[in-house]
From TrEMBL, chain A:
SMART domains: TBC. It comes from Nicator chloris. May act as a GTPase-activating protein for Rab family protein(s). Residues 92-300 form the Rab-GAP TBC domain. SUPFAM superfamilies: Ypt/Rab-GAP domain of gyp1p. This is TBC1 domain family member 30.
From TrEMBL, chain B:
The gene is Rab17. Residues 184-211 are annotated as: Disordered. The keyword GTP-binding applies. Residues 195-205 have a biased composition (Polar residues). The lineage of its organism: Eukaryota, Metazoa, Chordata, Craniata, Vertebrata. GO terms for molecular function: G protein activity; GTP binding; metal ion binding. It holds the Pfam family Ras. It catalyses: GTP + H2O = GDP + phosphate + H(+). It comes from Nicator chloris. This is Ras-related protein Rab-17. Its main location: other. SUPFAM superfamilies: P-loop containing nucleoside triphosphate hydrolases (SSF52540). InterPro entries: P-loop_NTPase, Rab_GTPases_membrane_traffic, Small_GTP-bd, Small_GTPase. It is found in: Cell projection, Dendrite; Melanosome; Recycling endosome membrane.
């Protein structure tokens, strides 16, 4: 047993230390308060700035910027509106915020569909393999080293590739109707980079992006919604950039004539399809791509169409100099390289064009999407006949093409062929003659 | 067959010039894009998977003709077929590519052939079966004989290549050109259509030049 003196000394010592810690704690608390106040003040400044640059509409006066959604019913909406306004600023969302911002959006979505995330994690990242995994896994593995992100190449990147594979497989397990689609590896690699390698967070973003933000069935089996958007895009191009669109149509028609009645697909297709499928990740430098994605997350999938329009507008001048389809393709080969190397498109300028080209939501977009999704007769006025085109699908099916397996794919094929009416027109006329001949 | 016939000019006098559309078909990751890249740029690198389609052009200045190739490269994943089939309509030639180190891709190439046979008459398209990745000989799953035999029974051109080590890549495209040109000549002399005959690959010694 220690004697009383010793205990007293210990007690005094302890008291001293406690008082030191208390003082420190108090200091820190005061500091915290000051910082909280400072954050609040800065948030207020941001709010003021956002309101100052806003269009001064009634809704803009209610903008209130917070770093995280505050509690309460309108907390998320308030945060969302303010961050959306930040994303629209020339500087965009600061890269330091990006991870948290994306996750907040994804979490809100997962919350809204009442997902038990822990359970989902256990299922999707399960070590045991599922019956469907094999074929999916093989496809995924083939693309793992082909992401365009240097961090996934080479020996030392083994661990990164393992994580990428787990995320892709997890998404395929989560959404079986989509599974794996070539190009996902490119999306997931960039998402993982933003999520600092956290696989669960990356999966959340994949789910939010593919299931919620992009049009329904964008990546499902026959890429139906993608075909619809490509058709829609050609209409938008015609509306917004009539001269360029006309020029391209002329080149396409000339190419068709030159190849002796052959078929040249719409010239923009090959590029636009890639842009849409990889959300520009293979055509623009990463910092620009991330800005676009921020915007897609806040404004929705119409941003993709807007960006594509802005890019074609930017390239327009050089394309209008092309005199043949061949020349167009070689020019585009050069321009796509320049775009990727960041020497052609300024991201601020691009985004400003994107935001200012039309009001939100894009006028007529919803109607166009609906038209190409449900209306299987998107033919030009010259050969317009609703009841007639339905039959056309079947005629094509029976006589010359065997590529339409079921009703759905007929609708799809016709839907996506819609804007290619230039190429269909001769066939339609042939058919019309046939029908006329019969009725006579 | 669809092509442009105009008079090219050269020191030796006017030569016909042709434009041909070639499509690359085959499973995922068999090296379709790499073959095109090697052929057009003479380089090999880790390429991104083809999403949708991409294309290359190559002009060959041959003794007998000027040939412009429009090479359409398609995504290997089956999902993409619905958006890619537009691109192989009207092709004059197709390379059916498989990976010699992956038996499954060989079977898939056979399915691709069936698909092509549905769309084209034999006289309409020149088809070459291409066993790529001979650099992976140690992991070979499809023997040269297997490929050769299948090509022979179906009347296809056949060659094994490596885009990585630049083995016979140029040759396979040359063989296709030779066959296309042979058919042009045949067509010019006899207007009636006829079946395909095999071409002697070793005879493809024409000089080529990129423009």
């Amino acid at each position: 047993l220690a004697d009383v003196d010793e205990l007293t000394t210990i007690k005094r010592e302890l008291n001293y230390r406690i008082s030191l810690q208390s003082a420190k704690l108090l200091r820190l608390l005061k500091q915290k308060d000051r910082l909280v106040q400072k954050v609040q003040k800065n948030c207020d400044i941001v709010t003021a700035c956002l309101q100052a640059v806003s269009q001064k509409r009634w809704v803009d006066t209610k903008l209130k910027f917070t770093l995280e959604p505050s509690l309460g019913q309108n907390g998320f909406q308030q945060w969302h509106d303010a961050l959306k306004a930040v994303a629209r600023l020339p500087t965009g969302i600061p890269k330091e915020w990006r991870r948290k911002v994306w996750l907040t959006l994804a979490d809100q979505y997962l919350h809204s569909i009442a997902i038990d995330w822990d359970k989902t994690m256990r299922f999707t990242f399960n070590e045991r393999s599922n019956p469907d995994d094999d074929s999916m896994g093989i496809q995924i593995v083939k693309d793992l080293h082909r992401t365009g992100c240097s961090s996934y190449c080479g020996q030392e990147a083994e661990q990164d590739r393992v994580v990428l594979k787990r995320v892709l497989l997890a998404y395929a397990r989560w959404n079986k109707s989509v599974g794996y689609c070539q190009g996902f590896n490119i999306l997931a690699a960039l998402i993982l980079e933003v999520m600092e390698g956290n696989e669960g967070d990356a999966l959340k973003i994949m789910i939010y992006l593919i299931d919620k933000v992009l049009p329904d069935s964008y990546f499902v089996n026959n890429l139906r919604a993608l075909s619809v958007d490509m058709a829609v895009f050609r209409d938008l191009l015609r509306m917004k950039l009539p001269e360029l669109s006309q020029h391209l149509d002329t080149l396409q028609r000339a190419a068709n004539r030159e190849s002796g009645g052959g078929y040249e697909p719409p010239l923009t297709n090959v590029f636009t399809m890639q842009w849409f499928l990889t959300l520009f990740a293979t055509c623009l430098p990463n910092h620009t791509v991330l800005k676009i994605w921020d915007s897609v997350f806040f404004e929705g999938s119409e941003i993709i169409l807007r960006v594509a329009l802005a890019i074609w507008a930017k390239l327009g001048e050089q394309i209008e100099c092309c005199e043949t389809a061949d020349e167009f393709y070689s020019t585009m080969g050069k321009l796509t390289q320049e775009m990727l190397e960041d020497s052609l498109i300024d991201s601020n300028e691009l985004m400003q064009t994107v935001y200012t080209m039309a009001q939100f939501p894009f006028p007529q977009l919803a109607e166009l999407r609906e038209k190409y999704t449900y209306n299987i007769t998107p033919f030009p006025a010259a050969v317009k006949s609703t009841s007639f085109s339905g039959r056309l699908g079947r005629t094509r099916d029976s006589d010359e093409e065997n590529d339409f397996d079921d009703e759905d794919s007929i609708a799809n094929a016709i839907g996506c062929l819609g804007p290619l009416s230039g190429f269909l027109a001769p066939e339609l006329q042939k058919y019309q003659k046939q029908m006329k001949g019969k009725s006579d | 067959m669809a092509q442009t016939v105009t008079s090219g000019t050269s020191p030796e006098g006017p030569r016909p010039s042709y434009m041909y559309k070639v499509v690359l078909l085959g499973s995922m990751s068999v090296g379709k894009s790499s073959l095109a890249y090697r052929y057009v740029r003479n380089d090999f690198r880790e390429l991104l998977p083809t999403v949708g389609c991409s294309f290359f052009t190559q002009t060959l200045d041959l003794d007998e003709a000027v040939v412009k190739f429009e090479i359409w490269d398609t995504a290997g994943q089956e999902k993409y077929q619905s958006v890619c089939h537009l691109y192989y309509r009207d092709a004059q030639a197709a390379l059916l590519v498989y990976d010699i180190a992956n038996k499954q891709t060989f079977s898939r190439a056979k399915l691709w052939l069936e698909e092509l046979e549905k769309r084209f008459l034999p006289s309409e398209i020149v088809i070459a079966l291409v066993g790529n990745k001979t650099d992976l000989a140690a992991e070979r799953e499809v023997t040269t004989e297997e490929g050769e035999e299948f090509a022979q029974t179906k009347g296809l051109l056949f060659m094994e290549t490596s885009a990585k080590s630049n083995h016979q890549v140029n040759d396979v495209f040359m063989a296709v050109v030779q066959e296309l040109l042979r058919r042009e000549k045949e067509k010019a002399s006899k207007p009636s259509p006829h079946g395909r005959s095999t071409v002697n690959l070793s005879a493809s010694g024409a000089r080529t030049r990129c423009c």
